[in-house]
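Memo to structure team: turn this sequence into structure tokens by end of day. - J.P.
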Amino acid sequence: MGDRYEHIRNGTPMCCDQWIEEMSLIGLQYRFNSPHAGASRLQDAYVGQIIIVNLDIAWQTATPIPNRWNDGSLIVQVVRDGTRWMEQRGEQGMKCSCGDVAVVDPLYWYKATVHAQTSMSILRIPRSALRERGLHGEFPVICCPDPANPDVRAVRDFILYMTSQAGKASNAMLVQLSEQCMDLADVLVSDRSRPAPKRSNAVTVLRAKQLIARRIGDHDLCVASIAAELNMTPRNLTFVLQAGGLSPMRYVWSVRLEHAARLLVGASRGDIKTLAHQCGFASPAHFARVFKARYDMTPRDYMESHKTARRDAVNRCSCATCQALKSREQPNR
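Reply from structure team:
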């Protein structure tokens, strides 16, 4: 049986015995459900703090190996196609079908089984990242958020999109997506049956900043909506942020202006109106007014000044790339 089926991890083919050994290295004991077996495909990638895994398997069972698993991460799995059966604490038959999400803690025993070919997108998220966001870091019971919940569906679809981009999008982009994914993790792992851990002021400030960065283009962003997402009152949120030296809406407008300034570098004149809307400003006129108050020049002047600076840098440089750029920019004679 060991050489009968081909299994592939990150492009490397292997027999059944090699596959089992490979999986044991990441702390999971895989077993083929004889007399059935099937080919396996696993592609994983380290992206920032998390690991993205795309997995296709059939007729296999997995359990965590005691004392082998690095307890620094949780497993978030989304079933793309097929069915995975989960067993824990004597509860059998927890069915995860296409579109279902499960959060599994490998510190606590479980058994996951698939029969027919099943495809999954999996994230390994560090516990430290959850704790930094004021969330619990351990889950003795498998967490299966309700896929009928619109917020759960939105996060699930985000995970599916991010995992589909592994090997396609740049690593820098994937890191940004992974950070946003961890910011959204509370939708999946918040345990409503027990009180949330007491959140420090530093964690509250961090989560508020992350939320503001994520919603920077939202014209309805306000103290009340930020507080609601953090399960706080607007008064308490304002108090915590001010204790950290921040005025909530001043910070919002500061982030919007900094984001707009980054986008203006390389933009064209026709982009300014769209850019103002994307950054959450009520109108181009409002954008121009507050931008000038911050940077002492209009958005158009700021954009042109960076174009001039870039052109001067190219003209001063003698490298082959800049010489080619200068040749293209010279008018035809």
